[in-house]
Specification:
The chain is an alpha/beta fold. The protein contains 7 helices and 7 strands; from the N terminus they run βαββαβαβαβαααβ. The protein has helices at about 25-35, 60-70, 95-120, 145-165, 185-190, 200-205, 215-230, and strands spanning about 15-20, 40-45, 50, 75-80, 125-130, 170-180, 240. The chain has a 7-stranded parallel beta sheet, with helices on both faces. Helix 3 (about 95-120) links the parallel strand 4 (about 75-80) and strand 5 (about 125-130). Helix 1 packs across helix 7, helix 2 packs parallel to helix 3 (about 95-120) and helix 3 packs parallel to helix 4 (about 145-165). The longest helix is centred in the middle third of the chain and has 24 residues, at about 95-120.
Length: about 250
């Protein structure tokens, strides 16, 4: 569990960040905590104070959320940031069924199970669900076809969950953040699908980004913080892209 300030715009709110020990999950957890939230970080191999969590298991979801509700009385924010890359040899000819299953189980089934766990409890308090997508879900990724398809499915899941909750009269919003390549984490693995020469791969990628730089984890975390807040109550079913203008030109 992340230490919590005694004040801030999210003071008293409880957040669960899956994949909370990776570079992106850590940045998100730190940002929510800095805003005053009580943050529970979960993962397959959690660090100190974290919750062991297999996002592909319904039983694991129920156990993690039960513990949070038992300890804090409510859960206000769910950030589905658990992820996997699935290896970088994912062309239409070389991708394996194992890669497809791994990526869809983690990104799509995992996020769906989290959404379902929240919705099935019919929370009385307003809840914000934030899924982590990717620009790979909106742009062709011939070298990472299974990963891109999984992220496209996360976007569809997000809009469908949002519509379901709105029509059901539930106080649950569901949005997603879709970053471009983030500086850190699997950056070098992704760049390797462009060119084995790291400098050439980075230059080739950045030539498509109008701002000329990679996205920082803190920028993604700031967008998650905005969506997780109590203020944008009319904002649901949206995919916010954090990409330095990638795709505009």
């Amino acid at each position: 569990m992340t230490a919590t300030p005694t004040s801030g715009p999210m003071h008293g709110r409880v957040a669960l960040v899956t994949g909370g020990f990776g570079a992106l999950g850590t940045a998100i957890a730190d940002r929510l905590s800095a805003a005053g939230a009580i943050v529970v970080r979960s993962g397959r191999n959690p660090g100190e104070g974290g919750s062991a969590h297999d996002v592909t298991s319904p039983q694991s979801w129920a156990s993690v959320v039960d513990r949070i509700v038992d300890e804090h009385g409510h859960l206000d924010v769910l950030v589905n940031s658990a992820g996997a890359l699935g290896g970088t040899d994912q062309t239409v000819l070389t991708a394996t069924p194992g890669q497809w299953h791994e990526l869809f189980d983690t990104h799509v089934i995992g996020s769906w199970l989290g959404c379902r766990e929240i919705i099935a409890r019919t929370p009385r308090n307003p809840v914000s669900i934030v899924n982590i997508g990717s620009t790979a879900g909106a742009n062709a990724t011939p070298g990472m076809i299974a990963y891109g398809a999984a992220k496209a499915a996360v976007a569809h899941l997000t809009t469908s969950v949002a519509l379901h909750c709105a029509r059901a009269g539930l106080s649950v919003r569901c949005n997603a953040v879709a970053p471009a390549l983030v500086d850190g984490g699997v950056r070098d693995d992704v760049l390797g699908t462009i060119s084995p020469a790291a400098d050439q791969a980075l230059a080739a990628y950045l030539s498509r980004v109008p701002t000329g730089r990679l996205v920082r984890p803190e920028e993604v975390a700031e967008t998650v913080f905005f969506l997780a807040g109590a203020e944008p109550q009319a904002l649901t079913g949206q995919i916010l892209t954090v990409a330095g203008g990638l795709g505009l030109a």
